[in-house]
Specification:
alpha+beta; Beta-Lactamase; Heat Shock Protein 90; six-stranded antiparallel β-sheet; five-stranded antiparallel β-sheet; 14 helices; binds adenosine-5'-diphosphate; phosphoprotein; ATP binding; transferase; phosphorelay sensor kinase activity; histidine kinase
């Protein structure tokens, strides 16, 4: 998995996820609590509504009871009994006038009373006042009673009347011909009926009261309710399919108790069974109270069953219908903000992951690249140690240590290999040189002996010949010298260690070199850090080495050049460094300077044996000898390090 994805998952999982879960969880919890609160509040609303409706209906029942026991009504009981038997009572007219004026006056003073009827024992309307006005007795009958409404021939209705309990208000539906509504409409409310009792304890007649329900309309329209909430009242009448599910009140469609006409009966549900394909009504009837979420999830309807009429199976469902998002709306903004917050958090965590990954991966990638370069044979590539992350910096340090260590080891191995090769070369060349030297020595000795003999036998006046013979001898000696050098090189004599005061030994050597330096117009500079340093070595052999090094420096130095010879003493060793400011050594020649017979000098100046012999001597002493160009090739640095005490010979520098 890529580093940014890893970091992202970590930061997201470890920090953002719990925070987001917490925030979303708290919001969901609050929303749930809020929903419960709203449910409770609406439950309270419906409760208070039913309470108020109940009060009003109880009041109306009391009015009905009051009418039944009022003087004008009680006075006409006999006339009513007679009318029920088909006889016109002589007091009927005066009783009617009294009752009419009483009831009309009552209607004017007690608002909300619809029509008030006084029925005789046979259920025919003897008196009826509507909205404070008496209806005329215009329907003649055989008995000459003259009813206010059409004579009823409805035995079922009569039986129902007769079965009503005495001394109590009952609620029933009048036959359709007596309904006080427009044709095709149903009255909103049942009719309250109070049976009248005469002195013989028989049913003398009935007072029938129809309340308009304008008070109920007021109660329902003024009741406190949440915004955009509509109220509905639906009748539930299991025994009467015509009224079961009838919508009595719906403030959304304008259907009121007072005006039970639909503003548009085609579109507005007149029956609850048409709402949501009957699903709503099914649930309401089954549960009595609860909440219904419409199928399109747009509205939520709270309903509660209420029994407005005592001793009746008829009930009302009081319903509050509101948009489903009323409860979720306040959380809409919070949800939007939360989504914004979540997206922002995601963005930030992605950004952080990207930055973090770059921050962490870049040094590691760079480290990898440097290591690759190193492995590809570029040991001078420097591993950076610059990360600000402690662990990464430690890694960088470890790798730098590793590469430095490997480089150093590789350098040592190379040098050792070179030295071994050198020694092998020296050994084979030495053997050959020793053989040649040995072969040349005998004839050379013969030449010298013969030359000496000739010199002795030569007459003194032959000065010219004598000079030639001397030259011949000098040349032979010179050849002998070279041969000895070659022999020396070939079979290195073991060093004769002597405790040597460094200062004096070096001053003697410089003295010997001074004439050559002056001739080359070069200045010799000697620096000593310890005047009293004494070391154990072969002063002749090591002296030979120093002479070689300084001579090479003199040969390389330009006129007016300066050669600095520095001696430093260390606890276990002493070092001699020879610095010149000559032209330096060509890079390709640098590897060969220790090779026997490698020289860039003319025949009379160099044999190419100086450094190879010197290296042999130094190694025989257990020391090291290095020749390198100074910085910018501003000359050569020759460096020799020797142990202060006698030690075993070493291989390699
Ligand atoms: P020789 O001096 O006889 O040439 P050496 O073995 O002493 O033999 O030196 C080998 C070669 O190394 C020299 O010919 C010269 O090219 C080079 N060399 C040694 N020392 C120096 C120096 N100080 N400056 C420049 N070249 C040097």
């Amino acid at each position: 998995m890529r580093l940014p994805v890893n970091i992202f998952l970590w930061t997201f999982g470890a920090t953002l996820l719990p925070v987001l879960a917490l925030v979303w969880g708290v919001t969901a919890f609050s929303e749930h609590r809020f929903q419960l609160e709203v449910n409770r509040e609406i439950g309270d609303n419906i409760q208070s509504l039913t309470g108020e409706i109940n009060n009003r209906l109880r009041y109306e029942r009391e009015v009905l009871r009051g009418i039944a026991h009022s003087q004008p009504i009680q006075t006409m009981l006999n006339a009513l009994v007679a009318s029920g038997e088909g006889i016109r009572h002589p007091d009927l007219t005066s009783d009617r006038i009294r009752a009419n004026s009483f009831l009309a006056g009552l209607q004017r003073t007690v608002p909300g009373l619809g029509s008030i009827r006084i029925l005789d024992a046979a259920g025919n309307t003897v008196v009826k006042t509507t909205l404070g006005r008496a209806a005329p007795p215009m329907f003649q009958s055989l008995s000459q009673v003259n009813y206010v409404e059409e004579e009823l021939e409805d035995p079922a209705f009569l039986n129902q009347l007769k079965s009503l309990p005495m001394d109590d208000v009952s609620f029933i539906m009048l036959p359709p011909s007596l309904w006080d509504v427009a044709p095709g409409q149903f009255p909103s409310m049942l009719y309250g009926v109070y049976p009248l009792r005469n002195f013989g304890n028989n049913r003398a007649g009935y007072v029938v009261l129809n309340t308009y329900g304008e008070y109920l309309d007021q109660i329902l329209s003024l009741s406190p309710k949440p915004r955009n909430t509509h109220v509905m009242v639906i009748e539930h009448d299991p025994g009467n399919p015509q009224r079961d599910g009838l919508v009595l009140y719906n403030d959304q469609t304008g259907r009121l108790f007072v005006t039970p006409e639909e503003s548009n009966p085609n579109t507005n549900p007149q029956y609850a069974q048409t709402i949501d394909h009957g699903l709503f009504w099914q649930k309401a009837v089954a549960l009595s109270n609860g909440v219904y979420l419409s199928q399109n999830k747009k509205t939520r309807t709270y309903f509660q069953e209420y029994h407005p009429y005592p001793y009746s199976l008829v009930s009302w469902f009081i319903m509050l219908k509101m948009p489903a998002d009323v409860t979720s709306a306040p959380f809409q903004d919070i949800h939007h903000s939360l989504w914004g917050f979540t997206l922002l958090a995601l963005g930030i965590s992605l950004l952080l992951a990207g930055l973090g990954a770059r921050y962490f991966s870049r040094p590691i990638a760079r480290l990898g690249l440097s290591l690759k370069h190193f492995a590809d044979g570029n040991p001078h590539e420097i591993i950076p140690v610059d990360s600000r992350t402690t662990e990464v910096r430690q890694l960088q340090q470890s790798f730098r240590y590793l590469t430095e260590h490997l480089t150093e080891e590789a350098r040592k191995r190379q040098t050792a290999e070179r030295q071994m090769l050198q020694q092998a070369k020296l050994a084979s060349i030495g053997e050959m040189a020793a053989g040649i030297g040995h072969e040349i020595n005998n004839p050379l000795n013969n030449i010298l002996t013969l030359t000496r003999l000739l010199e002795r036998q030569l007459p003194p006046e032959k000065t010219e010949l004598r000079t030639d013979l001397e030259d011949l001898r000098a040349e032979a000696l010179r050849v002998g010298h070279i041969v000895r050098g070659v022999m020396n090189f070939a079979r290195q004599l073991p060093p004769d260690h002597q405790p040597t005061p460094i200062t004096q030994w070096l001053l003697d050597l410089i003295d010997r070199l001074q004439p050559e330096a002056m001739e080359a117009d070069v200045f010799l500079n000697l620096l000593l850090d310890d005047q009293d340093c004494v070391a154990s070595f072969d002063p002749n052999q090591i002296g030979q080495v120093v002479l070689n090094l300084v001579r090479n420096a003199i040969h390389a130095s330009p006129p007016m050049g300066e050669i600095t010879i520095t001696a430093r003493s260390k606890p276990d060793s002493f070092e001699i460094e020879v610095l010149d400011n000559g032209k330096g050594i060509e890079p390709e020649a640098l590897d060969k300077v220790f090779d026997p017979f490698f020289t860039t000098k003319s025949v009379d100046k160099g044999t190419g044996l100086g450094l190879s012999i010197s290296l042999g001597i130094v190694q025989y002493h257990g020391g090291t000898l290095e020749i390198e160009n100074r910085q910018d090739r501003s000359g050569v640095r020759a460096f020799m390090s020797l142990p202060r005490e006698k030690s075993s010979p070493r291989v390699g520098n």
